[in-house]
Design brief:
The chain has helices at residues 23-26, 43-50, 91-95, 110-123, 132-153, 177-194, 211-231, 254-272, 290-293, 332-336, 343-347, 378-385, 434-449, 454-458, 461-467, 475-480, 485-496, 503-509, 513-517, 594-599, and strands at 8-11, 14-17, 315-319, 429-433, 521-525, 536-538, 544-546, 560-565, 568-576. The chain is mainly alpha-helical. The strands form four sheets. It has a three-stranded antiparallel sheet. A two-stranded antiparallel ribbon has the order 1-2. A two-stranded antiparallel sheet has the order 3-4. A hairpin with a 2-residue loop joins strand 8 and strand 9. The protein is globular, with a radius of gyration of 25 Å. Residues 1-34 and 56-67 have low confidence and may be disordered.
Length: 609
């Protein structure tokens, strides 16, 4: 008897499921008659089925991916080195307290099965209409799912056919990460060959995956894997295959191959995609705050320039929201402005002369609140305060808004006009935007060649620096000031993609997870006798004197800690102490859940767990 589409099977540790798509499908005939035999007969069937790829999980699931990703505060780099409070999310990796659990909803193959069903039906499709776009989407989302699994668990079993409860594949060992990467890249090549360009996607279908989105995503995968293989190596992955050159699917030449292809793919998107940075800083009413309004762009009433979503040509792959038809149903503004940045992030953006704060004569120190923001990168002010104007004050009381001494305005809609009522926000959520393509391009070039030309910098990250109101990065600037180009490009990535869910992945693939996450998360500089601030000054006896009106020291349970700053070692408030952090090599990957190991005895656990 033929299985119905609305089937849900647990088999061999893989969740096998197909989700309902649109209500209009059910209207074709009674639900009980809705089977494979009467479906997948025309292009509209395939198109309707692919809408399940664009569904999303509840933010409570806190998954590493959702097809497509939804607003989730757990995906905003909480607990990373750039976040001074975890806000209840992300602390397991941020503090190195990952535990082996019975079940983990991230170990999920349901979307892979969903894609495999469409691909199997496409193989026997006898209709006359073109279904290539929908086949391309299935390949893309299968790759998307496998990349999420790879980043979380390493090598996992590969399934490219529709399995049932008796399929022997359900009792196979894990494939190596290199085999999984090969499968991802193969699927993305198939997607690229079949997907339409952005220009050919009708207005009513905007938000669907384009050829350029698949190219940008493939470049992202290749940069991730090339740098992982270069800086991390093979030891965290417990797929059970041999080590070194004999590891299944491993090819030492892939690093160069991947980086070369990533550069070419980024160049293709940059040259042909028709995308452009959303830079409205030349509009006086926008007050140099493009990097704030971009992330809460709704209708013309969402910003003083009267711009709506049709003006945004920067987002390449995104989840689309609409105030009338698809609101977020999450309290984005209220929550996101409590995601305080760390001392490390606030010190990261350069000054307007293009130099880091420890090199720039423009940096004005920390004596008065607001000094450290003067002559700085506009992204720092836009992301933290939704303004290009430095703050002039604030009190340090742990538990109040701005517990680290700083706010967060990225994604938060407040301060302009009458913002949307809580839980009705409907700004689009970027998955890949042109800014990231520029960053991928520049980093891949430096990793590939050890150098990058000024022309290549101008074609990529200097466009981001221009929007940020800082001088261009050039080879002369780097040489004269003793800057390392790779470090500066990584700096750009950290600043531009702040709270966009990229930070943990970057720390892993650069091989610096432990070094970045084990130190304390610090807040504002409070200084002391030798460095008076608005929070502390020198008393007549020379001891530190707390200015009680501005600083409630006792409310910070971890107290203060010396931190290296551009002004030397200075006392800062501690938000999350290094005493709580035990990040280790094993944490580059999560453990496989125990339920999966029990269901399939051939699955091996990742090392260290």
């Amino acid at each position: 008897m033929m299985k119905k589409i609305f089937n849900y099977i647990m088999a061999g540790g893989m969740v096998l499921s197909v989700f309902s798509c649109q209500k209009k499908f059910v209207d074709l005939e009674p639900t009980a008659m809705f089977t494979d035999a009467v479906y997948f007969k025309q292009p509209s069937d395939f198109k309707a089925y692919t809408t399940s790829f664009y569904g999303y999980y509840s933010s409570k699931d806190n998954k590493w991916f959702s097809l497509m990703p939804t607003w989730s505060f757990g995906n905003m780099d909480n607990g990373s080195d750039l976040s001074a409070n975890a806000n209840g999310n992300g602390t397991d990796l941020g503090q190195g307290i990952i535990a082996v659990v019975s079940t983990d909803n991230r170990y999920d193959f349901s979307w892979i099965r969903t894609a495999n069903i469409l691909l199997s039906k496409a193989a026997t499709y006898a209709g006359t209409g073109d279904i290539s776009q929908y086949v391309g989407e299935a390949y893309f989302f299968r790759a998307f799912s496998y990349f999420g699994l790879l980043k979380t668990f390493g090598g996992v079993p590969i399934a490219t056919t529709v399995l049932d409860v008796n399929s022997p594949e359900l009792q196979e060992p894990r494939n190596s990460r290199y085999e999984v990467v090969n499968q991802i890249l193969s699927d993305l090549d198939s997607a690229i060959a079949k997907l339409p360009t952005e220009q050919l996607i009708p207005a009513g279908d905007k938000g669907r995956v384009s050829k350029w989105a698949a190219q940008a995503y493939k470049a992202q995968v290749e940069l991730y894997e090339a740098t992982w293989e270069k800086y991390v190596g093979q030891d965290p992955d417990g797929d059970g295959t041999s080590i070194g050159a004999g590891k299944t699917g491993y090819d030492a030449g892939n690093k160069t191959k991947y980086l070369t292809d990533a550069v070419a793919l980024c160049q293709s998107v940059m040259d042909n995609g028709g995308y452009e940075l959303w830079n409205k800083n030349n509009v006086g009413s926008m007050a140099n705050s493009s990097s704030w309004y971009l992330f809460n762009l709704e209708d013309a009433g969402s910003n003083p320039g009267g711009f709506d979503k049709t003006s945004n040509k920067e987002f390449i792959l995104y989840t689309e929201y609409d105030f009338t038809n698809k609101q977020s149903r999450l309290n984005i503004s209220w929550t996101s402005w409590q995601l305080y940045p760390s001392r490390k992030f606030v010190d990261m953006p350069v000054c307007t002369d293009g130099l880091p704060i420890d090199k720039s004569p423009l940096f004005q120190g920390y004596h008065s609140v607001g000094d450290e923001f003067k002559s700085r990168d506009l992204r720092l002010l836009n992301y933290l305060y939704g303004s290009a104007i430095p703050p002039t004050g604030g009190n340090l009381v742990y538990g109040s808004l701005g517990a680290s001494g700083y706010g967060n305005a990225k994604y938060a809609v407040y301060g302009y006009g009458t913002r949307r009522t809580d839980n009705t926000e409907s700004a689009n959520l970027p998955v890949i935007r042109l800014a990231e393509v520029y960053l991928t391009y520049a980093e891949a070039l430096v990793e590939l060649n050890g150098t990058i030309t000024d022309a290549q910098l101008n074609a990529s990250i200097n466009k981001l620096r221009s929007r940020a109101g800082v001088a261009s990065l050039t080879n002369a600037l780097a040489t004269t000031n003793g800057l390392d180009m790779k470090t500066e490009i990584r700096r750009e990535r950290g600043v531009e993609l702040y709270r966009e869910g990229k930070r943990f992945d970057d720390l892993k693939r650069w091989g610096i997870l432990e070094a970045a996450l084990n130190p304390s998360r610090l807040g504002m500089v409070v200084g002391g006798a030798n460095y008076p601030t608005e929070f502390k000054t020198a008393s007549s006896t020379g001891a530190d004197s707390v200015i009680a009106a501005r600083y409630t020291a006792g409310s910070y349970r971890f107290g203060e800690e010396d931190a290296e700053t551009s002004a030397g070692k200075l006392k800062c408030v501690v938000i999350d102490s290094k005493q709580n952090h035990t990040v280790a090599r094993k944490h580059y990957l999560y453990p496989l859940p125990l339920q999966q190991l029990n269901l399939n005895s051939k699955l091996l656990q990742n090392p260290g767990y």
